[in-house]
Write a structure and sequence with these properties.
- The chain is globular and about 80 Å long.
- The chain folds into 3 domains: 208 residues, Up-down Bundle (Growth Hormone, Chain: A), CATH 1.20.1250.20; 57 residues; 237 residues, Up-down Bundle (Growth Hormone, Chain: A), CATH 1.20.1250.
- Helices cover 76% and strands 0% of the residues.
- By secondary structure, it is mainly alpha-helical.
- Helix 9 runs antiparallel to helix 15 and helix 20 crosses helix 25.
- The protein starts with 16 loop residues before the first helix and ends with a helix.
- The protein is built from 25 helices and no strands.
- 50% of the residues are buried.
């Protein structure tokens, strides 16, 4: 993607006074709405699935299709900015997000909801890079770090507010309102942004778009995501549908790579992967984000389904994730000036591994303190995670390559989140089935512990043998799900340790700390 504005056009002067305060607030509010919507739905999945008459696994598609659509629309941001201008595109994306949110709220079934979530994901793509660009233009040039700190704080408040607010709304009203609340917030943000920034529009030009590359991108991403989401229901590669989707995704990806590498103005500049800073940093941040995001989705499901927590209580358990992230976010610029980015990223991965090791010790009778502590501590590596790795990814690139690099790395990261969620959800289900099978092998009349448990259940619950067996079966289901989830936590911890070498194949140099700020405008 080319830079959205010609270099000869002078940047607008920073805002001041009430226009500065309102402008920064409205842009940050739009960012908050976007980030909030990605986390607010996590705790509502069990309730949403029940209301729509689908399984929780199918309900998880609400998360994955949003992420996949969001990922595909990110590379379009540069081209759309050239055609429409930053302000028009930002306001238009907010309004489309509002419309899609309203459609999500009134969706009568899962198919309509998924279609609306795809539209919402497409609208969300340009919001993050454009919000950074508008904030940087709002602040004086020497205060760019403050602009990005405000953006980072806004983005990290979402994990605190989202789960708790989503749980409260779901319990108190209905899951539809987690989408309806975007309507007044989005309309207010769009109105204020248009009022303040409309005379600060960037120049436009009619540049061509890589249509073939775009269609190939949409094709293989859609095929792969549908294959991952439907695989378990259709018995994976025993199904001709899954086989066809897999072949289409593989051929589509191969064609996409060949086309983009040979295209003069590709929609995604894959040649950036030739640089080891970009390659190592992008793969590391994408794999890490896939594990991070997927666990944020499946953890609230387990808490509600097997621990019996209400949606609001599950939200309160997962909300502390953002506390340390918000506290540390404003300090990251100063920390990166004193500590090498590779060391910070390594510490983040070790911290994530420690958090998942703690979670791997969970049991079915876990208390709230033990449940919440790893989530609270996870905020520390979360703060050390995004900015240093972004700085590594962009380090050493010429200024004209930074927009393309930021767009491509964000595309890979966001899509990895969708793929990771599908894979970990499937892995949890498979491990649960395996552990359930192993546990039931011991549930026979020759096992004295099992027969004693039946007698004790009958005596305690004052029920017959069949009801006692049902009680034991429920316990086995809960234990199998717990053991399966522990396997996922162990695997997550190991993956974070294994990807640390990817950080150290990079050589970001001393200018890496400034690289993160360079990403802000794109």
């Amino acid at each position: 993607m080319d830079p959205p504005t010609p270099a000869a056009v002078p940047a607008p002067a920073p805002l001041a006074g009430i226009r500065f305060a309102l402008g920064a607030f409205a842009v940050a509010l739009a960012t908050f709405m976007n980030v909030l919507d990605s986390s607010i739905a996590n705790v509502a999945i069990p309730t949403l699935s029940g209301d729509l008459g689908v399984s929780v696994d199918e309900g998880t598609w609400v998360i994955t299709v949003f992420s996949a659509a969001n990922a595909v629309s990110i590379p379009l941001t540069g081209w759309l900015t050239q055609r429409m201008g930053q302000v028009k595109l930002f306001v238009g994306a907010i309004l489309l997000f509002v419309i899609a949110s309203a459609l999500c709220g009134i969706a009568p079934n899962l198919s309509v909801l998924l279609a609306a979530r795809v539209l919402q994901g497409v609208a969300a793509g340009p919001l993050i890079p454009l919000s950074q660009a508008l904030l940087l233009s709002t602040f004086p040039k020497d205060k760019g770090g403050s602009a990005l700190s405000l953006w980072a704080m806004t983005a990290t408040v979402g994990p605190i507010v989202g789960p708790a607010l989503g749980g409260w709304i779901t319990d108190r009203y209905s899951w539809s309102w987690i989408f309806y609340i975007n309507v007044p917030v989005g309309l207010f943000a769009a109105a204020v942004v248009w009022w303040i920034y409309r005379d600060r529009e960037t120049p436009t030009r009619h540049s061509p778009i890589d249509t073939v590359g775009l269609l190939a991108l949409i094709g293989w991403v859609a095929a792969l995501q549908i294959m991952l989401d439907k695989g378990k229901d259709l018995d994976w590669f025993n199904s001709p549908v899954i086989c066809a989707l897999g072949v289409f995704a593989l051929i589509g990806l191969a064609f996409f790579v060949i086309w983009e590498v040979t295209e003069e103005k590709p929609i995604v500049d894959l040649r950036l992967f030739a640089g080891r800073n970009f390659l190592g940093g992008t793969v590391a941040i994408s794999v890490a984000y896939a594990i991070f995001f997927a666990n944020l989705v499946i953890l609230p499901q387990w808490i509600q389904e097997y621990l019996g927590y209400r949606a609001v209580d599950a939200g309160m358990v997962t909300a502390p994730l953002g506390i340390f992230a918000v506290i540390l976010a404003p300090m990251m610029g100063m920390i990166m000036m004193k500590v090498e980015t590779r060391i910070l990223a390594t510490l983040a991965f070790i911290g994530f591994a420690a958090v998942f090791f703690l979670r791997a010790q969970y049991t079915t009778d876990i208390d709230q303190y033990t449940l919440i502590l790893p989530t609270l501590l996870q905020g520390i590596p979360t703060a050390l995670f995004f900015v240093p790795l972004t700085a590594i990814i962009l380090s050493g690139l010429p200024p004209e390559k930074i927009p393309s690099a930021a767009g491509l790395s964000n595309f890979v990261r966001v899509f990895a989140g969708a793929v990771g969620t599908s894979l970990l959800a499937t892995g949890w289900n498979d491990r649960t089935i395996l552990h359930h099978s192993q546990l039931t092998e011991q549930a026979n009349s020759y096992n004295q512990i099992f027969t004693d448990s039946i007698v004790q259940a009958q005596s305690t619950l004052k029920v017959g043998a069949s009801n006692a067996l049902a009680f034991i079966e429920n316990g086995l289901n809960a234990q199998a799900a717990m053991l399966g989830l522990n396997d996922i936590f162990w695997m997550s911890a190991i993956i974070f340790i294994l990807i640390i070498p990817l950080i150290w194949i990079t050589h970001p140099g001393k200018d890496a700390a400034a690289g993160a700020a360079g990403a802000g405008g794109h």
